[in-house]
Amino acid sequence: MPSPKNKLLEGPILRSLLALAVPIVAANALQSAYQLIDAFWVGRLGGAAVAAVSVSFPAMFLTFAIGGGLSMAGSTLIAQYVGARNQRMVGHVAGQTLLMVGLVSIVLGAIGFFGAPGLLRLMGVAPDVYPGALGFMRVSFAGTIFTFTYFVFQSIMRGIGRPNLPVYIALGTVFLNFVLDPLFIFGWGPVPGYGVMGAAMTTFISQAIAAGIGLAVLRLGLHGIHVRRGDFIPDLSYVQRAFFLGVPASIEMSARAGALMVMSFLIASFGTLALAAYGVSSNVLQVVMIPAMGLSMAISTLVGQNIGARNIERAAAIGRLGALIGFLGLAAFGLLVFLFPRTIVAFFVPNDAAVIEAGAEFLRIGAPAWGFLGLQFALTGVLRASGNMVVTMVLTLVSQWVLQFPLAYLLSKHTALEMRGIWWAFPITNLTIALITLGVYAKGDWKKKRLLDDEEMLTTRVSDDMLSGEQRR
C-alpha cells in the first residue's frame, strides 16, 4: 500500500507553518498554565508557601531540561523518517525514545527524591519554607517519569506533523489541575489539605493521566503512528545516535536555566527594586518566548520532514520565511511594549511606582531588539532539524555565558550605567547572537547534513526484524 500523501512536503509553506505553529504555541501556553494555576492557589497560603515553590523551580527546570533535550532528539529523527516515508522507523524511533527517556527519568527522579533534603540544606532554605519545599520537590521528582513521558509524546506528535492532539490533552489536564489544586492544597471533606505539597500532587495526577493517554494513542496506532511491543526492545545503535543528538540539546536547555539563576544573583546585588523590576519584566518576556519557541518547533518539524524527503531547497525556503515571520512578529510585539511599558508593568504591580518605572525602563531598552530574538529562534529551528545539535548548543553557550552575563556584569559593575547596564546586556546579546546565527545559516553547511544517510543499514535491519516479528504474531 502506498504511503499516505504528506501535505507538509508540498503546497504553500505559510499554510504548513501556521498549521503546525498555532497548535504548538497553544500547547506550550497550556503547559505554562500549570505554573500559573499553582501560583494562584499556593499564593493563598502566604509568603513561605510561595517561596517553597520558587526555591524548587531551578532544580526542577534543570531536570526537565535533560528530558526535553532527549525528547528533541527523537522528534528530529522522527521528522526526517516521516519525510523519507519510512513509517516502520517512525514507530521504532518513537518506542526507543520512550524507553530511553523513561529510564533516564527513573534515575533522575530517584536522585532528586532522595537528594532533595541535602539540596535544600545546601541552598540555606529558611525553616518555615523547608517543609513545604521538601514535600513539593519530592512529589515533583516522583512524577518525573510521567512528565518526561508526556514530553516525548508531544515531541513525537510534532515530529509526525500532528500537533493538535496534545493541545486537547493539555486543555483537559490543565482544567483538572485547576479543579484539584484547591482540593489537595486546602482539603475538603474526607480529603486532607496537604499545603504546598498538594499542588505537586495535583500536577502528578494530571501528568500521569496525560502520559497514559499519550501511551495509549501510540500503542493503538490511532493518529498516524503505531508503536509496537518490539519497538521497546533496546536498540543500542539508536540509543547511541539519540544520545549524541540529545545530550547537546539538554546542555543547551540547562545552560539557559543556569544562566537565569546566575543573572538573578547579579540583579539581586542591586537590591529589591532591581529584582522586582526584573521579575515583572521577565514575565512579559516569557509571554513573548511562547510564540517564538512555538514557531521554532514548527520550523524544526517542517524542515526536518523536507530534509528527510530530500527537498533541501524547500527546507531552505521554510527557514527564510520562518525567520522573516519570527523577526517581524516579535518586532511588532516589541514595538507595542516599547510604546506602553508603564501600562504593561502596572498590570502586574499596580501600586508600586518605583517598580513600574524600573520595569518600564527595562522593557524600553530591551523590547526594540525582540525581533532579533525571533530571528534567532527561527533559524535555530532549522539547524536543529538538520541534526546540528552541537552548533545550537554552542550558540546558546556563547549567547548566555560569553555575551549576556559577562556584559551585564561589566556594564553594571564597571560603568556608570549600574542597574541599567544589566538591562542593556539583553538587547546587545540578542542582536549579536542573531547575526551570528544568520551567518551560520547562510553558510549552508546544514544543508549537507542528513541523519538518515548514516542509518541505512540500521533502517533495513530494524525493518526486517520488525516485519519478521509481525509475521510470527
Question: How would you describe what is shown here?
Answer:
The chain is mostly helical and 473 residues long. The chain has two domains: 12-234, no CATH class; 250-458, no CATH class. It has helices at 13-42, 47-83, 87-122, 130-142, 144-159, 164-186, 196-220, 236-268, 272-308, 312-339, 341-348, 353-366, 370-385, 389-413, 419-443, 456-472. α1 runs parallel beside α6 (164-186), α2 (47-83) runs antiparallel to α3 (87-122) and α5 (144-159) packs across α7 (196-220). The longest helix is centred in the first third of the chain and has 37 residues, at 47-83.
Q: Would you spell out the secondary-structure blueprint of this structure?
A:
Blueprint: H1 13-42, H2 47-83, H3 87-122, H4 130-142, H5 144-159, H6 164-186, H7 196-220, H8 236-268, H9 272-308, H10 312-339, H11 341-348, H12 353-366, H13 370-385, H14 389-413, H15 419-443, H16 456-472
Helix pairs in contact: 1-6, 1-7, 1-9, 2-3, 2-4, 2-5, 2-8, 2-9, 3-4, 3-5, 4-7, 5-7, 6-7, 8-14, 9-10, 9-12, 9-13, 10-12, 10-13, 11-12, 12-15, 13-15, 14-15
